[in-house]
Each structure stands twice: as C-alpha cells, then as structure tokens.
Amino acid sequence: MYCAPGRGARAGRLLGLNNPARGLAAALPSTVVVGGFYGDEGKGKLVSYLALHDSPRLVARGGAGPNAGHTIVDGGQTRKVRMVPCGFVNREARLAIGPGVLVDPVVLLREARELGASARLVVDRRCGVITQAHREADSRGDLAGRIGSTGSGTGPANAERAMRTLGLAGDEASLGGMVGDVPLEVNEALDEGAGVLVEGTQGTFLSLWHGTYPYVTSKDVTAAGICADVGLGPRRVDEVIVAFKAYVTRVGAGPLGGELGAGEAEARGWAEFGAVTGRPRRAAEFDCELARRAVMLNGATQVAITKLDVAFGGCAGARSWAGLTREARAFVEGVEASLGVSVTLMGTGPGPEDVVDRRARA
Ligand code: IMP
Ligand code: MG
Description:
The protein has helices at 8-18, 43-53, 105-115, 132-138, 141-147, 154-162, 182-191, 223-230, 262-267, 288-298, 308-311, 326-339; strands spanning 30-35, 58-61, 70-74, 77-81, 94-97, 121-124, 179-180, 196-199, 239-245, 247-250, 272-273, 280-285, 302-306, 343-347, 355-357. By secondary structure, it is of the alpha/beta class. Inosinic acid binds next to helix 5 and helix 6.
C-alpha cells in the first residue's frame, strides 16, 4: 500500500535520498539510461552491462517505439532489438515496456520469440499499437522525405495517439498474456527495495521538445520523458546516466555541427550504419557544447562514454582505467572537466563485459 509509513527497505531508500554523502556507487535502486546526442550512443550495450552487473528485478523500456534499434552481443551472438528491452541478457530480469512506448506487435512478438523472452515480458495495456497503415504513412511523403524518418510507423501512430484515436495494447488480442500494468510493477519493485533499470531510446537532440525540430522523433526522449513513459515519478529516480559516444553520429536529416565528409569518417573508422534502417550514419567529433546541454536537460548524475576503442586505438576490451591508453584517459578527463559530471562507465567493445566501470570511485 503506497500510504503505509516507510519501513525496512523503503525507509532505507528514503535515508539514502536525503543523505548528502550518498556516493555514485549507489547505482540502484532506480537508474535511468538515456542518450545524450542523436541516438545510437551505445545505450543498449551499456544497459546490457548494467542488467548483468546490477541485477535489477525489472528492466523497463521507455522511448518512442520500434524506430529505435539497439545492437546487443548476447553469449557471443549479435542481436538487434527494436522492442524487447536490452536487459533481456539477464535471464532473471523481468522485462517491461511502459505505456509511453508504441508497440508494433509484429516486431515485438517475433523478437520475444527469437529471444525466448515472452514469459518474462510485460507490455503495458496503455501502450499504443502500430499497424500496417502507420508503417505505410511513415514510409512516404514528408516524414520519409524531408525528415528521414525510420519508416517504422512511430510518428503517424503518435499523431493518432494525440488525436485519441489510436488502438491500445489492452485491446490487441495477439499480445494476450503479455499485457499488464508496468507503472505498478516498476513502483512495487522499488517499494520492495529491488532494483529497476530504465532504458531510454533515441537521444536528447531527437526530442520533440528539446531537439533540432523538425528533425526529431515524435516525442520527448530526455530522462523526464523516459521516466514518464514507464510511470516513474521524478522523485523516485536515483541515477540518471547520460550516454555519449566518443564521437557523434546522426542518421536521417537535420543539423550536425562539425560534420565530417563520408571519406573522413571512414578513414577514422567511424562509418556506421543504422540498426533499423541500414542507412549510413553521418559523423562528427565529440561535441562538448552539445554534451553540456544534454547534461543540463537530463539532470545527469553520471556520464557514460562508449566506443573508446573505436575513437582511440589500444583500448579494445579494456576493463580497467589503467587498461586505457593515456590519450583515451586524457579525453575522458577532459570531458569530465568540461561537463562537471563524473564519467563512470566507458565502453571499450561490443560485448557486455567490455566496460570500464568507475562507479565505485566516488
Ligand atoms: P522517426 O522517429 O522514425 O519519426 O524518425 C525521426 C528522426 O529521428 C529521423 O532522423 C530518424 O533517423 C531519427 N531516429 C529515430 N529513432 C532513432 C534511433 O533510435 N536512433 C537514431 N536515430 C533515430
Ligand atoms: Mg540505435
């Protein structure tokens, strides 16, 4: 019961919240991971690491919908997920899709089956449902042409949601036993002192409110929006990890400061392709000004930097600070100084274990 006086784990949590000495090591109970640039910062891989190491009871996905693609290495196999939370790599974790996220039952059911995740997946009954008509509308006209949308049906479905005409998951027979109450599960887990990991999709500057409008996705994808997607109130968030890549990429149209030519990006090893669309990603050097704004907009308590191995040779597979090259360490320290937030997690390869974790440092 929510109005019961705090006892046990709940009282401990309140003490933690009020204790100014609380260090960065307190990564759980509730941790939110969001993208700081234009998506594709490697959030999926970070979430897979956190899901395995922090043992959350629940991993909940926020964000727009199946326009997002995460690439995850699971037991040596590379998987691309667009609907199932990246926390699936932890077989003990319950997986949840919050009511703010649009679901495409075709994509969701296929992924859940392929990953063997159906029995531990809960889709909120208030999730909006993408249909073939939305996918078609997203694959032609202005959204596909001028904006360069992913064609996944997300924008047209969110437009219908705003018009109050969109169908919901609770009425979708194909989702059957997966449908439930995600905000209740998220908050009950926290009440019981269990960990909850919330994974965002897209990135800060693709936010409908805070991004490079009109070259943005169809909703807010900053930490506040992602938390609202899963029913997590602002006071219940312990850690906000803003993920940046060691360089910036952008897929689709819209401004990209300091954009490199395709040849230059390739020469640096930064040529990437979209996980959903397969389109080449545009690339630029790490942008401290953009990163500072992302830290501000998301209220970052920690920062993660991925793909240090790609930006700096000699870092591949490093799992300790000492294992990074001097150049990479100087880069991380420079970013820390510029942002005024600790860089606690660094990605050094595609596997969930290819991480330097300095959360215990503070
Ligand atoms: P939409 O979200 O499919 O409408 O696409 C709008 C813009 O956001 C396009 O530039 C897409 O390429 C971009 N976008 C949407 N989702 C992602 C993502 O998960 N990663 C990177 N870019 C994305
Ligand atoms: Mg992606």
